[in-house]
Design goal:
- By secondary structure, this protein is of the alpha/beta class.
- The protein has helices spanning about 10-20, 35-40, 70-80, 90-95, 95-105, 120-125, 135-140, 140-150, 165-170, 190-195, 215-225, 235, 240-250; strands at about 50-55, 85, 110-115, 130-135, 155-160, 175-180, 205-210, 230.
- α11 (about 215-225) links the parallel β7 (about 205-210) and β8 (about 230).
- About 45% of the residues are buried.
């Protein structure tokens, strides 16, 4: 990635940790994935298509949860989540690949791996149905990483924040795009980001709204803007995860 890119200090710290992370990996993973786009499309009626996130902590919150990730994930699915996201970044988010492995073995919905994946060997740390790839962190490696993810059977969720990111994601062949409402330079959230970018996404691409979705009203706003799915973390993790998930999904 471009080291001159303006990023918040917390994000730079996360990236530094990701660069240091062991990437010897071992054998390449091979996955028979559960389809994330299909799971989102299956949310019919009043049920909102929510990917609920198991996130023990983050640099943008003081909260920390030590609950069993499997119990959290099951509560989210019971609350109507069509998929589960698991943070595997250990130093800043309290996550682990072991937690994702256990969650994927315990639920029957697609499981997304949220981490700061910078090179191919990072993909082999654990099998998941989908993997987050952040455009701003990969730059010239984006196309290679999209293909490497697919070669392993996993679905790349390519994250963008502005029009330049979006154009690069489309050029790289992304069919699953996450629009992050959080600006990685200032860590500020603007739900208008999805509203500005979603109209420029090709119709055959699945769009997921990320960050800042704190209420049913926020969820409806993102769906009205063109999102096909909603990635929700803190609003679900803060309290009873099953009840919070029900509130966001509308079930």
């Amino acid at each position: 990635m471009n080291d001159t890119l303006e990023l918040a200090p917390a994000v730079r710290s996360i990236l530094d940790a990701a660069r240091r992370r062991d990437s010897t990996g071992g054998e390449s993973v091979a996955v028979e994935p559960r389809s994330l786009p299909r799971a989102l499309a299956a949310a019919t009626g009043d049920r909102r298509p929510v990917i609920a996130e198991v996130k023990p902590t983050s640099p943008t919150t003081d909260a920390h949860r030590d609950d069993d990730p499997v119990a959290l994930a099951r509560g989210m699915v019971a609350g109507g989540a069509v998929a589960v996201s698991v943070l595997t970044e250990p130093e800043h988010f309290g996550g682990s690949t072991a937690a994702l492995r256990r969650v994927r073995g315990a639920v029957d919905v697609p499981v997304l791996r949220k981490d700061f994946v910078l090179r191919e060997a990072h993909l082999d740390a654990v099998a998941a149905d989908a993997v987050l790839l952040v455009v701003r962190f990969l730059e010239d490696d984006l196309g290679t990483m999209v293909e490497a993810t697919r070669d392993r059977g996993m679905q790349p969720l390519v994250e963008v924040h502005d029009r330049e990111d979006l154009d690069r994601a489309i050029d790289a062949g992304a069919t699953l795009i996450g629009i992050n409402n959080r600006d990685l330079a200032r860590l500020e959230v603007d739900l208008g980001t999805v509203e500005r970018l979603a109209p420029h996404v090709p119709e055959d691409v699945t769009v997921i709204a990320e960050s800042g979705i704190e209420s049913p009203a926020d969820a409806e706003r993102m769906l009205a803007a063109g999102a096909d799915g909603l990635l929700v973390g803190s609003a679900i993790m803060d309290g009873d995860v099953a009840a919070n998930t029900r509130a966001v999904t509308g079930t």
